[in-house]
Amino acid sequence: MTQDADSPPSSPSCPLPERGARRRDVLSTVVVGAGCLGACALAYPFLDSLNGTANTSLGEDDSIDVDISSLRAGQQLVVTWRGWPVFIQKRTPEMLASLRASDLGQRLRDPDSKILQQPKDATNWHRSVVPEIGVLIGICTHLGCVPSYATPSTNDKSGKYSCPCHGSQFDVAGRVYKEAPAPYNLPVPPVTMMSATHVRIGQSKGDPGFSIASIQQI
Amino acid sequence: MSKPETSPTGWLEARLPIVSAFRREYVDFAMPRNLNYLWNFGAFATIALALLIVSGIFLALNYTPSVAEAFNSIETIDRHVSSGWLVRAIHMGGVSMLFAALYVHMARSLYYGSYKTPRELLWLTGLGLFILVMIAAFAGYILPWGQMSYWGATVVINAMNAVPVIGPALASWLLGGEGLGSVALHRFYVLHFVTAFSIIGVIVLHVAALHVVGSNNPTGVEPETSDDVVPFHPYYTTKDGLGLCLFLMVYAVLIFFAPDLLTLANNYAMANPLVTPGDITPEWYFAPFYGILRAVPFKLGGLLLSAGSVAVLFAVPWLDRSPVKSARFRPVLRWALLGLFIAFIALGVAGMHKPTGLWLGISRLSVAYYYAYFLLLLPFLPRFEKTRPVPASLRGENR
After folding, report:
1. Chain A partners within 8 Å of B86 (Cβ)
2. pLDDT band for position A52 (50/70/90)?
3. Average pLDDT across chain A, whole number
4. What is the CATH number of the domain that holds B379?
């Protein structure tokens, strides 16, 4: 047993096979190819798990009910739905009138809400289910900042949104003005009016098939 | 240097010779020509560990180590995260596959005397790996914060407390002053992945030691001429590859067809410090040690014998006095070793049953035999055993 210590067992050299032999090239290629396929299949669940819960929460009811009885005309309330800020406004007659002003149309990118940024029952001049209550997802379509609400004042009774990041402007129905970078109107979530003072956000009675994931851009 | 430095491989070779080192250690490396399929299990364990580490990293991305959220985050991984159920099944199944591979790997070393000169360090680093794997498995089992997690941890920490002098200090370091709560859970989480990554480091030592002394073989006779060896590639890459395919098939069956075969339903109930589940059983891979613990009717005695059953393995290279490596040529030891394997398995089965009546008797008998094998048979059997003639070369068996 002593010769082990003096001469390591790896010292006898192997009769090496000839390099460049072609007999088994096809077999080798197939084996390596199958191994790569297996590695890709194995990688799939790991990479897929990086999507997190994004693909699985769609089937669940994530609607929220909001009591707006304390909201006064001209005010807005901010709630959270799916982690997004959602603006709920109670519009004054002056605000509604400003939305129908004749000169407004040319200054807006999409005055008739032709681009899918809202459910069907909000594809109208006031972009909401009922004219007096407006609901918008408060995320600027430029680069995602939250626009701030300018409450109607004695100087400007119409009210508007302006984004603090890059100056995009929206009217009170969330329609974007042409002279600013944001490309689309503010998104409107699916909304059902449960009563005059009670809004359900996340379900649309007028457009039940609507999915917020299908809109042009959040 | 054979290649000009202008070629990309030559440039790399001059600065960091990893390509030639890889060729030397994994392509042209001389292996005994007579290895059987039991020599596949080291590769199996490496692959199982690699899958455990990858799946563990992806699980960690979705896991929250706090008492309030741990259980829910695991449920979310299982039910909501895309492919999360699969990643977790790979991780949980991987533990069983790793332990299974390690037990066969160790049993092979005991049978063919792979722990003997000059491979003592190979055996010792391997045992170090085994202990690290056990620590990682124990810490990992606590993380889902189910009933078995909580009560398993409680029992082990109380056991640790019973160890004189160092026990209470160790337990206190683990728990962080308060009881088994968020602080402790966070520590087990850190312990889990620190041991997991330490294992990689020790594997490097283990494999480096293997490449210095070379693989043992079924005859236990060291290779001497070039007729005794074959290059690692293609001979053992294909042999390992075939075995690996079978290993992965068993692994896949476990993941896809029996994901709950080796898990305990109790652990899908959230930890409740007020109620201990009716039947505390360990995972199968800890069952033999749990069996020893329950076979001894004294608190400290059970702990010492249970820990000692691993500790005694460290002394095996010096306990075994026989110059003959392989049990092929040791007719008595061959049967004695079979008895050891049966005793170990019997302890495992007993560990899963209530320690009463027949099971208590079986486990006590098994503990006695386990220690007798290492402390009496290994040192003293060579004085009486008549070994069969050892062939002059490792090809002797195949002639």
Report:
1. 45, 49
2. confident
3. 86
4. 1.10.287
A5 or B259, greater pLDDT: B259
User: Active-site residue B80, yes or no?
Assistant: no
Alpha carbon of A42: minimum distance to chain B alpha carbons (Å): 10
Query: ipTM score of the complex?
Result: 0.85
Strand partners, A21: none
Which chain B residues are closer than 8 Å to A53 by Cβ? 76, 80-82
Q: What is the mean pLDDT of chain B?
A: 92
Residue A161 near residue A147, CB atoms below 8 Å: yes
- Which pLDDT band, with edges at 50, 70 and 90, does A5 fall under? very low
The whole-angstrom distance between A211's CA and the closest CA on chain B is: 19
Shared-domain flag, residues A172 and A68: yes
Q: Could you tell me if B221 and B289 lie in one domain? A: no
DSSP run (H or E) holding A78: strand A76-81
Alpha-carbon distance B111 to B329, whole Å?
11
Q: How far is A209 from A207, CA to CA, in rounded Å?
A: 6
Q: Give the pLDDT mean for B171-198.
A: 91
- Residue B327: CB partners within 8 Å, gap ≥ 6? B111, B112, B113, B333, B334, B337
Q: Are A68 and A205 in contact (CB under 8 A)?
A: no
CATH assignment at residue B162: 1.20.810.10
Please give the C-alpha separations between residue B18 and each of B14, B96, B153, in angstroms, as whole numbers.
10, 34, 44
pLDDT band at A15 (very low <50, low <70, confident <90, very high): low
Predicted confidence (pLDDT) at residue B26 exceeds the cutoff of 60? yes
How would residue A11 be classed by pLDDT, with cut points 50, 70 and 90? Answer: low
Q: Which residue in B52, B79, B83 has the most chain A C-beta atoms within 10 A of its own C-beta, making it the best mutation to test that interface?
A: B83
Domain that holds residue A210: 64-214
Q: Vertex B71, ends B67 and B72: CA angle to 5°? A: 110
Boundary (domain end) residue, out of B237, B256, B275:
B275
Parent domain of B286: 281-391
The reply to whether B213 and B77 lie within a common domain is yes
Is B270 in the same domain as B324?
A: no
Q: What are phi and psi of A68, to 5 degrees?
A: -110, 20
Q: Is the pLDDT of residue B95 over 80?
A: yes
Residues A147 and A99 placed together within one structural domain of the fold: yes
In this model, does residue B329 exceed pLDDT 80?
yes
Domain boundary, last residue among B275, B299, B318: B275
Min Cα separation A85/chain B (Å): 24
Q: Check whether residue B306 and residue B331 sit in a common domain.
A: yes
Best of B2, B23, B79, B82 to disrupt the A interface (most A CBs within 10 Å) is: B82
Indicate whether B144 and B168 sit together in one domain: yes
| Nearest Cα to Cα of residue B359 among B344, B347, B370 | B347
Q: State the total domains in chain B.
A: 2
Q: Which residue has the tokens 């492919």?
A: B83
Give bridge partners of residue A134 from the DSSP assignment.
A89
Catalytic residue at B239? yes
- My answer on whether B298 and B249 are in the same domain is no
Q: Beta-carbon neighbour count of residue B314 at 10 Å? A: 16
Residue A127 per-residue DSSP state: S
Query: What is the rounded distance in angstroms from the CA atom of residue A149 to the CA atom of residue B367?
Result: 77
Rounded to whole angstroms, the Cα distance separating B173 from B66 reads 18
